Batch of 2 targets.
Target 1
Amino acid sequence: MVATLLPPRIRRPSQALAVSCRGLTKEFIQGEAKLLALRGVDVDIPLGELTLLVGPSGCGKTTLISIVAALLDASAGQVEVLGRDLAMLGERDKVAFRGERIGFVFQQYNLLPALTAAENVAVPLLIAGRPRAVALARAAELLEEVGLGQRRDAYASQLSGGQQQRVAIARALIHQPRLLVCDEPTAALDAQSGRTVMELLRRVALQPDRAVIVVTHDSRVYDCADRIIHMNDGRIERVESRRRA
């Protein structure tokens, strides 16, 4: 069973940061034109919290999480993730860093149709060279944790959208990342499935050595967040704390 929402905890002053950005800028070149996607972003994201990134389409949300996840390089500024300055990492180091510390959940699930749920979840460990039996055993444990233990042998076509998203989350968690980044995880889900997915993400985020960042347009899930970062035109407009005593 997926745990129900837990009451938010009081943030302690000593709480460590998962992400710290200062003066973060990202520029894209389109022909002879320059597009400024991020315009001097300053933001801190603590460990032990679920943070939502919200704002209109094209405001820079996906660009920001792509830089935080070490998938894109910033044009200027500094970004530290889990204590590492990403600008100091070479490409090979970034690949290793992502593989060890960051999990990414895509909007479209990206499950492999020829594989079972357990095999899909096990893919990151198999790529890393772990024995198949070990990877599948860990996958089965995670599927049990997300409420899909009885569906581990089902193929993607046999799962609902909410079930496929939970498989995708389990896959992102199998290498035990400290930072989980999710791009519109409830966009294609009905209200109940979306709620179940957000409750699962919140349970992950409440662990003191982990953080979850969710890009969303879904206002139905705002009450799941510890904080909401509002973006507009490549800038942080305001940060809203949702923690309650």
Target 2
Amino acid sequence: MNTALILAAVTALATTAGGFLALKSKDRLHIVLGLAAGLLLGLVAFDLLPEIFELNKNELFHAPAVSVAFIAGFILLHLIERALGSHEPSDSEYAHDHQHSHNLAGTVGALTMSGHVFLDGVALGIAFQVSNSLGIAIFVALLVHAFSDGLNTVSLLVKSGNWSRRAIWLLAVDAVMRIGGAAFGTYITISDPVLGVYLAAFAGMLIYLATSHILPEAHSKHSSKLTMLATFLGIIIMWLVVANLPHE
């Protein structure tokens, strides 16, 4: 079976694992999220960005094309989340005050974000076409993202009293979209410059998730030195992991 498809299935399981942790643990989630944010930041800085600049050296209006794509990915995800009201920290005032009026919007947002999940899978599939080391790096990013997403989503649904079969159905959609995206990414052929632009936009989305989603959630209730320490630890761990990955 294709490696990308297997790993995409693992990331889907990570979403469920994050949700399970949200149900079972209450007092240490901020540390886990702080670590997750650090891992994503380290991955983008030490692995994705150097690879992206190697894949595409073109310029757009005297700026690196991949830098423009990076900012575009960040802004695009920000606009989507502002429009749909999704990914509010589960302990934020907004999430608490609007939990009933935004139930439908939250479901629509989750379904819309499944398109983003599909693109995650595509990134995994095409990364393995470049090299195994890049594929593994993307897999780590998706694993961290999927885990924190499951943790936050379930926390919010439970808090709002909206935990139901619909939530389980949405998790199933998440799994199908990840695997479907990986299958699509495995069998399409694109040039290195186009791949560089795509991965740059993907990296921008990861930075947005780490800084505007995961870290605010980590500090929303239990802001502490341990949370910051976990973030720094995640960055250092990823630095060491990338330094020891075999590069092809």
